[in-house]
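Design a sequence for this backbone.
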């Protein structure tokens, strides 16, 4: 089973942090149209995790995706990483986001992905809040070491039923490959841009479960400039040292030139589906159940 997901946040980030430039919105719109056309051609329904503020500030973007029959999931309200928020903050953020998205699309929102996969050992209480907000499926777990976020002790890279404090959530983690003694993601974001396509395909063939994830920003050909210390600290809410800013610069730019072509080839090669469809077809009694 190959699951295709997109995180939809660029318009909101541009408005809040990057100068509200009309040409950038036009570029995001154009790439979204290309994605929707490509998925239509291949009869693929994906999951689009949208930031809640997209529903209030850019409703036409979310509506356009929903109108094509794709699943709309939640990607927080204002894209603040959950591991930088209190439980009250996470509750408020999730509640607002789910509410805005549901009001716009007139349908329950049941799938969730945290910004930057920011659910880990220290904030696993987040699952209780997600369940309270009506979320049934989560795709926030990055089961490997990561510079920012990650849940390396999670121990599963296939769908599992999580039980936490009396609630249940169906988890669809990011899949990882074993490279030079390390578990490394390969099927989305900067990792997809970094690895050659043959490697991604080889790993996908090897596994019965793949979780692919993309952002519009991964697919735009031009490179971003390095952030100023203030921009970095306002956005990431952490130390904007030169090394941190260079790491981010490298990660956000590597392989951008060929990214769209690679995605096109990948989508022409494999069948993909979304979380809503997979959830119905999976026999959950045969999936691992874990207590966090
Ligand atoms: Zn995001």
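Sequence:
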């Amino acid at each position: 089973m190959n699951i295709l997901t997109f995180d939809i946040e660029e318009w909101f980030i541009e408005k809040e942090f990057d100068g509200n430039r009309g040409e950038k919105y036009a570029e995001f719109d154009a790439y979204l149209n290309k994605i929707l056309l490509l998925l239509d051609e291949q009869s693929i329904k994906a999951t689009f995790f949208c930031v809640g503020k997209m529903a209030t500030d850019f409703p036409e973007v979310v509506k356009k995706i929903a109108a094509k029959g794709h699943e709309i999931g939640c990607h927080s309200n204002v894209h603040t990483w959950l591991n930088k928020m209190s439980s009250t903050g996470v509750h408020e953020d999730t509640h607002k986001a789910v509410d805005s998205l549901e009001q716009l699309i007139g349908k329950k929102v049941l799938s969730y992905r945290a910004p930057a996969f920011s659910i880990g050992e220290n904030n696993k209480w987040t699952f209780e809040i997600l369940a309270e907000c009506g979320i049934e499926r989560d795709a926030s777990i990055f089961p490997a070491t990561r510079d920012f976020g990650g849940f390396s002790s999670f121990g599963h890279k296939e769908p599992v039923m999580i039980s936490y404090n009396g609630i249940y959530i169906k988890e669809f983690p990011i899949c990882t490959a074993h490279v030079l003694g390390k578990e490394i993601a390969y099927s989305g974001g900067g990792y997809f841009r970094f690895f050659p396509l043959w490697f991604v395909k080889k790993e996908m063939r090897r596994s019965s479960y793949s979780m692919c994830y993309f952002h519009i920003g991964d697919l735009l050909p031009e490179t971003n400039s390095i952030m100023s210390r203030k921009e970095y600290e306002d956005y990431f809410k952490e130390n904007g040292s030169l090394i941190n800013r260079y790491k981010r610069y490298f990660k956000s730019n590597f392989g951008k030139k060929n990214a769209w072509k690679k995605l096109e080839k990948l989508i022409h090669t494999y069948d993909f589906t979304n979380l809503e469809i997979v959830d119905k077809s999976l026999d959950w009694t045969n999936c691992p159940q874990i207590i966090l």
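The first strand starts at residue 2 and ends at 8.
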